[in-house]
C-alpha cells in the first residue's frame, strides 16, 4: 500500500516559487496499479519521484505499507522500492546479470542466491537466461532492454514499484506486447505500483485506478470505468477525449452485457418452425442453428425461411463470428461492424452457445452509466473502496 | 648512414637515456594521474570551483617550459634541488594536470543523467555510484587524457635536459652545443618515435580498461 498525505513540492526558480505538486493526498491499495496521468508539467512525475526521494518533498508524508517513510534512510528506502524509468538506465558497463543483481548485491545477498534470482527473473520476463545473462545492454533491442529494466526493479522483490513512463520509448507494437506481459506478471506478483503515463489508452489498459493531475493538483482519482463514465469537470472530460465512451469498450466484458435468453433452432427443424421462432422471439433478421451439443452451426435468415421450404440443415448460412464471455466490448463492436450485424452469439469455454450480445444491450449498458444517476451524484470523487 | 653508425656505436647510451626519459615522464604523469583524477571527480560537485580549477590548470600549460624551469630554480634551490630530477618531474606533473583533470571532469559530467538517476533510484550511495557506474564509464575518456599528458610531456621532458634532468634531450642539447647534427637528429628522432610508440601502447591499455559492454560505443569512430 502506498499512501500520500498532503505531499507538496515547491521549486524555487529564478521566476519565483513554482508549486509542482500541491497537497497531494491519495492511497493506492496493496496489489493495485495506480496510473498518474496528465499533460506534461502537471506534477505527476514530481509526485512519483517524491516517493523514493529523487525529488525531496517540501512538505507532506509518504506511507508505505502503513509505515511513515520520513525517518527511513534514503538508500534503504530506495532499495526496497522498484524503480523503472523511461530511459531504461541499464548500466552499459555491466552484463545483464550484473544489472539485475545490482540491488540484491547492495542488500548483501550471497552470490548463489542472486545468481539464481537473476535466472528466475529472466524466465519471468520470457528471455532465455543462458542466451542473455552474459551479454551487455548494448547488444539488446529496446524492448528487451526495458524488460531487463523491469527485472532489475523486481530483483529484490520489493513490495512497491515506481514506474516513470516505463514503456514510453518503445515502439507501439512492442509496447503492447510488453504491457500485456507486465499485466500477466502483475497478476501473480501483486505489487503495489505507481505508474506515470501521459497516454490515456495505456492508463485505461494498465490501471486499476487512475489519478488525473493538472497544474500540480490531483483532479480526479477513480477507477478507469468510473473516470470515463463520470469525469469530474471539463478539464478531465476534455483530457479523456471525445471518444471516451468508446474507450470504455475496452473495460467492459461480454460477461457484463450478455443476455442468456437466445432463441435457437436445430438442424432437424423445418424452415417453417424457424420462421415462427424468429417471429416469436422478435428477431429482425435471423436465428441461430445449434447442434445437439448446443454448438453454433449456422444462421437461418428471415428471408430464407419465408421463401423456401425444407429443413434448416439444408439452408443455413455460416455464422459470421462468435464471442466468448471474457472478450471485451471493443472486440465485439469491431466484429459487429466488420460483419454488418447487430448481434452475435456468445459461447462458453467449451464452445456451447450461452447467450447473445446485441448492439442495443451494449449501448444501453454504456449509456446507463453516463446518465447522471443518483449513484454517480453521490459518488465521492476520490474513489473509495468498492 | 653516418647517423645509423652513430646510433649503433652509442646504443647503450641511447637505451639508458630512453629508459631515463620514460622513467621521468612515467613517474611524473603517474603522480599527476593520482592527483588529477580525484581533483577532476571532486570538482564535478561544484561548477564554480570546477571553472576556477580548470582555469588555473590552463594557465599553467601556457607557461613555456623553459620559463617554468627558470622559475623553479631559485625556489627549489632552497632545498638544494634547483636543477636536475625534481624540477623536471614537477614541471611535467603540472603540465599533466590540465588534460587529466579536464578529461576526468568532462567524462564524469557526461555520464548519462538517466544512468545517474537509475543508480540513485535503486539505492546506490554516492561512493557506490562513482565506483560501480561513473568511474567505469569515464575510464576511456580519463585514459585519453593520460595519453595526451604523456605524449605532450615526452616533448617537454626533452627540454629538461637543459636543467640536467637527463633523458633523450641530452642528445639534442649536446648536438646543439657541439654543433653535431648526428646527436641532434638522433635525439629528435628518438623523442618522436618514443612519443608515437607510447601513445599506441597506451591506446591498447585504454581499450583493455574500457568496460566490455561499452567497447562499441567508445570506439565507434
From TrEMBL, chain A:
It is a peripheral membrane protein. One of its GO terms (cellular component) is plasma membrane. The complex is probably composed of two ATP-binding proteins, two transmembrane proteins and a solute-binding protein. It is found in: Cell inner membrane. GO terms for biological process: amino acid transport; glycine betaine transport. This is Quaternary amine transport ATP-binding protein. It is an enzyme of class 7 (translocase). Residues 366-386 are annotated as: Disordered. Belongs to the ABC transporter superfamily. Keywords: ATP-binding, CBS domain, Cell inner membrane, Cell membrane, Membrane, Nucleotide-binding, Repeat, Transport. GO terms for molecular function: ABC-type quaternary ammonium compound transporting activity; ATP binding; ATP hydrolysis activity. Pfam families: ABC_tran, CBS. Residues 258-315, 316-373 form the CBS domain. The keyword Aminoacyl-tRNA synthetase does not apply. It catalyses: a quaternary ammonium(out) + ATP + H2O = a quaternary ammonium(in) + ADP + phosphate + H(+). Residues 2-240 form the ABC transporter domain. Transmembrane segments: none annotated. It comes from Halomonas beimenensis. Its EC number is 7.6.2.9. NCBIfam families: proV.
TrEMBL record, chain B:
GO terms for biological process: glycine betaine transport; transmembrane transport. Coiled coil: none annotated. It comes from the Bacteria. SUPFAM superfamilies: MetI-like. Its main location: membrane. It is found in: Cell membrane. GO terms for cellular component: plasma membrane. PROSITE patterns: ABC_TM1. Belongs to the binding-protein-dependent transport system permease family. This is Binding-protein-dependent transport systems inner membrane component. It comes from Halomonas beimenensis. The gene is opuBD4.
